[in-house]
Amino acid sequence: MTATTAEDSREGRKRRVRGTGAVRHPDRKGRSPIFDAPTPHGLFFRYLALIIVLLISIGPMLWELSTSLKSKAEDVYTQNIQLLPHHPTLGNYGEVQNTIPVWHFALNSLTVAVINVTGNVIGATLAGYVLARLKFKGRKLLLGVFVATLILPAEVTIISKFQMITSMGLGNSILGVCLPDMIAMTNVLLMRNAFMALPREVEEAAIIDGANVLQRMRYVGLPSVKGVLSVISIFAFIGAWDDFLWPLLVLQSPDKLTLTVGLSYLNGQWSHDPRTIAAGTMMALLPILALFLILQRYFFRGVAQGAIKG
């Protein structure tokens, strides 16, 4: 190959995007010439989009945090927005503890969240493996029923769920709050897709070695879907911790209320302090943030996981 031919070949692998000055490989089809280009304009639009999304997502949280740290002397209804408090104080958090049994409510929420996480990890794993790896009559029909349940909003079935829980004698109980969400259909489909990505040859080799269904799921399937299990655990915990409407319907005894329902007592008929309400909101939010920061690497690993480890 001559020098001219090699140079032409190298030039043929690159194409310059008109108007942006960006170089794009011919194999990279369908990518944006602005956001995918390592140019000053591309970097500007990247960071601009990132800043906008950041303000929308964490802006309300920062405002609640600022309000919770403001003293009684500061006006929270002023039209002049002041994010940083002039006299920051933690007294509002102490006021929350004096108004409601916040730690008892938090323990109830933690109990509900742990039960939901356990039920989803075990139930979704078993159901997902059955739908993905076992062959039986009616499997496609059953899968269609699972998918159909995702079409209905939760508000449509909430009355029927409430009637079912009360008929079982589980009204006004922690178990009644946990039972409907112990196996979420979304988690079942996530586990099914994760098990579907496993090579058939690996499972056939385990069958030749004499492994039964449970052994194949435990020693072949589960080690390859740990990332998806972490995603399910995080989503189940956050969903159970933040749920408000369902515990509000099921629970009547004040000593059984979850944290999100118990915080509503801060907004009473004779007392309405935005600082105290913001402090209670932050107390409910901080455990979720701490959990996500601890498990974020497992979360993103599970989202990106698409194949068996080699």
TrEMBL record:
The membrane topology noted for this protein in its Swiss-Prot or TrEMBL record is: Multi-pass membrane protein
Q: Where is the signal peptide?
A: none
Keywords tagged on the record: Cell membrane, Membrane, Transmembrane, Transmembrane helix, Transport
Q: What is this protein called?
A: Carbohydrate ABC transporter permease
> Could you name the domain of life of the organism this protein comes from?
Bacteria
**Gene3D superfamilies for the chain:** MetI-like (1.10.3720.10)
Whose protein is this, by species?
Catenulispora pinistramenti
Query: What SUPFAM superfamilies does the entry give?
Result: MetI-like
Places the protein is found: Cell membrane
Please name the InterPro entries in this protein's record.
MetI-like, MetI-like_sf
PANTHER family per UniProt: ABC TRANSPORTER PERMEASE PROTEIN MG189-RELATED-RELATED, LACTOSE TRANSPORT SYSTEM PERMEASE PROTEIN LACG
